[in-house]
Amino acid sequence: MDSTVSKKVTIISYIISIALIIAMVTASVMLKDPEIILPEVAAMAIAMWVYREAGWIRQPSKIFLAPFITAVIGFAVNQLQIPYLAKVNLTLILMMLFLRIIRSNLGPSIATGLLPVVTNANEWSFIISVFIFTFTLMLGVLVFGLNKGLEKNVQVQYKYMLVFLVLVFSWIGLCWLIGFQLAVIPPILVVVFESLQKPMYNGKMAFKQGLVLTISATVGTLLYFAIDSWILVTLLDMILMLILLHIVGIRVPAVFAFPLLPFVFPDHIVAMLPLGSLITCVFLFTSVLVYKKMEMNRSGR
Questions:
Q1: Which pTM does this prediction carry?
Q2: Percent of the chain with pLDDT over 90
């Protein structure tokens, strides 16, 4: 009986989450404003309302506060008259400082902070959209008590913020040297940030993460170019991502964010997204794997 109820609750949670994602894309289409679309909201909706990720929902106020403030940081930095990579690096540093100050390691905050920089967002509709959707996500957690029974305060390993910056700066530097344009793909960086904080990490996990992220980028790109309706594309994307994660047997909320990137990236960048995602995943997840193996060796695990 409990299993049946659980399945029903899960199905309803998926329906509500996907409805929110489609509502966001529909608003963008109706208002003819792509800056309303926040790919990370798709990942947050699934992770918080369906998966009930403890690390993401234990402090509901930060579901709204952390992504909203990092979005403001990224939006403000994007207005500066400095080179693109300088904007990215400055935004990353300011975001890590902010997350350290509020004692949070909420990964989605990285994506909402980088999005206005990588998409060159200049309209206030972006900030309003972040406010509305992150507030809605927080409200959903509070109203349905999804955080009940979870310990509010847990120890945050701040050293991983520094390790994250080192890995990402190394990758950005390498991309700059070889002239690779897709140095910063927000959903991948969120998964990298989350993976660094896992107590155990292995090659199988790294492979599965890279696999589903690359496939989601490919599916999202192909459907974007094949079908004119963004709303229909979004619905198909979400269904296909559910099937993908079920087949591979892994939970990676960022997979739901990836197919929405083509709506906010320029077309010439979208065309590079599948290959760019593969290359980025190989470098960054291999780097995380090497670091975690060194860490486990030092601790004798």
A1: 0.94
A2: 87
